[in-house]
Structures are given as C-alpha cells and as structure tokens.
Design brief:
- There is one protein chain.
- By secondary structure, the chain is mainly alpha-helical.
- The protein has one domain.
- It has 12 helices and no strands.
- Helix 1 packs antiparallel against helix 9, helix 5 crosses helix 12 and helix 8 packs antiparallel against helix 9.
- The protein is globular, with a radius of gyration of 19 Å.
- The two termini are 24 Å apart.
Length: 297
C-alpha cells in the first residue's frame, strides 16, 4: 500500500508540472506558490490542529526547517519550469536521487562507490545534451538543478524526522511554514492580485490539495514504513511521468538530442539509486531492511 501511494504521488507531480507551467504564464509565480500552500495548509488544518498539542518546540523547529527547504526547492523548481520545458524539469528534478549520496560525502564523509560516479557522469552527459535543445533554457535547467539538490536535503531531513513526530502535525507545520515564506517574498517583490480564470484556479486547487497536502502526508507516512531503496526507486518515476505528460499535454518535442539527454539522466538515476539508498540509511542511522522472502513455488 505505501508503494502504491508513492507511485500515485509521483504521477500527480508529473502531470501537475504541465498545470503549473500554464498557470505561472498568467499569474505571478510567488503569489501562485503562496496561495497553493495556503490551500494545502487549510486542507490539513482540520486534522492536524488536533494533533499539535504534544508537538512541542522541537517539532515546530523541525517543521520550520522542512518548510524552509520546501519553499527554496519548490520556488527554484517553479522558476525553472517557467523558463524551460516540462520534460527537462521532470528529468532534472529526478537528480535528487543522485544528490543524496553526494550530500553524504560532503557532510559526513560517507564513502561513495564507483556506481555513483558512473551515475554522475551519465547525468552530466544528459544535462549537456539538454542544454542544446532549442525549446529548453540553460538558465531554467540550472534553476531546476539547484532545486533538485535542495529537494535531496529535504528528503534526508524528512527521513530524520518522520519517526519522531505525528505525520499530520509535521506535514501541517512544514506546509504552513512554506506558505508563510512564499507569502512574505511575494508581498516584497510582487503586486498582490486576486487569481482569475480556470487555468490558474484549477492549477491552484489541484496542486494545493493533491501535489502538496496529499503528497507530503503520503511522503512522511511512507518514509516511516518503506525502505529507502524502494522510495528512491519509486520517486524516480516522477521523471517518467513528467516526460509522458510533457509530451501528451504540453507539446514537448525535444527531438533526438533532447530525449537522448533525458535517457542519460534517467540511466544515471537508476545507476545511482542503490548508492543513494545506502547513504540515506547511513545518514539517518536506519538499518537496512531484512530482505523480503521469495514466494515459493
């Protein structure tokens, strides 16, 4: 059940790339993100507020840290999506799987196997190929790349906090913190206006309820139950869904060069996944799960 829920989340993230790209062409980016996270906060409030009683100061700090990472990561990702293609955004975002063990090396001197360096090499080749796609944008791709790194930090921190705090309370606080951050930056740099039109409102409602509220509850809940290996594998499906929906709904036509770049990035993610999962377990001090018994017969 957790794996099925995570697959559903990656599908939601993949299809909403298209909605968000269309919406931010019509409405200011930061205001869009602020309202999106306010909607998610309101959706979580009826359940979460009853569970905040024993959350404590440590829980509030944990939620604030996660919310800050969400705001930075999603803000950069959406700014990049505004400038580049849906397909490129999806595949580059998937590199957070690869960044996890690199974080382990940089922060905790965790050894990195050769398979990871092979994954890094493939990803770099893929990024170089995508840089030559006329529909894309080098600046947009770079913003998404930095976003992927921040999202890798978020995944590591969720692993650290998931078993220590209530799922709904932790999700509520991090989403509310992100909403406050987006709102403050939007008021500082944009003229606040009321969203208008079905394109913007449908994107706000769908992403707020499903890509944020539902998705983060599932992520926190699943990371208490599912091995890091399986989560890394499932999350990488986001790239596949983004490529599919970018082709079907956004008219992405990257050509042989672009799709070769996406294939190289995906291959790098697949090669790096075992190292990413192993490093994630070391970072959070979680033992490797026992192997599941094979069915007889």
């Amino acid at each position: 059940m957790p794996t099925v829920a995570l697959i559903l989340v990656t599908a939601v993230w993949g299809v909403t790339f298209v909605q968000v790209k269309d919406a931010v062409e019509l409405y200011p980016l930061l205001a869009f993100l602020a309202i999106r996270y306010v909607i998610a906060t309101a959706a979580l409030a009826p359940i979460a507020l009853r569970r905040l009683g024993g959350f404590g100061r440590e829980g509030l700090v944990a939620g604030a840290v996660l919310g800050s990472l969400i705001a930075l990561g999603i803000g950069l990702q959406t700014a990049g999506l505004e400038r580049t293609t849906v397909t490129s955004t999806g595949f580059i975002t998937g590199l957070y799987v690869l960044f996890t063990p690199l974080l382990g090396l940089a922060l905790f001197r965790t050894p990195i196997p050769r398979s990871l360096w092979a994954g890094v090499a493939l990803a770099l080749v893929g990024l170089a190929l995508l840089a030559g796609v006329p529909q894309g944008s080098g600046r947009g791709d770079l913003l998404v790349l930095v976003s992927a790194f921040v999202q890798a930090v978020h995944i590591v921190m969720v692993e650290r906090y998931a078993n220590r705090f209530d799922v709904f309370a932790l999700t509520f606080v991090q989403v509310a913190a992100a909403a406050v951050a987006f709102g403050a930056v939007s008021l500082a740099f944009e003229e606040p206006t009321v969203p208008r039109g079905w394109t913007v409102w449908s994107a706000l409602i769908v992403t707020g309820l499903f890509a944020v509220a539902f998705a983060y509850v599932v992520q926190v809940w699943a990371q208490r139950r599912v091995s890091a290996t399986r989560i890394a594998i499932v999350f990488s499906l986001e790239t596949v869904f983004a490529g599919l929906f970018g082709y079907l709904l956004a008219g992405d036509r990257l050509g042989a060069l672009g799709f070769a770049g996406c294939a190289a990035i995906f291959a790098g993610i697949v090669v790096a996944e075992p190292a990413a999962a192993s490093t994630l377990r070391r970072l959070v001090g979680r033992p490797a799960p026992e192997p599941e018994p094979r069915p007889r017969g």
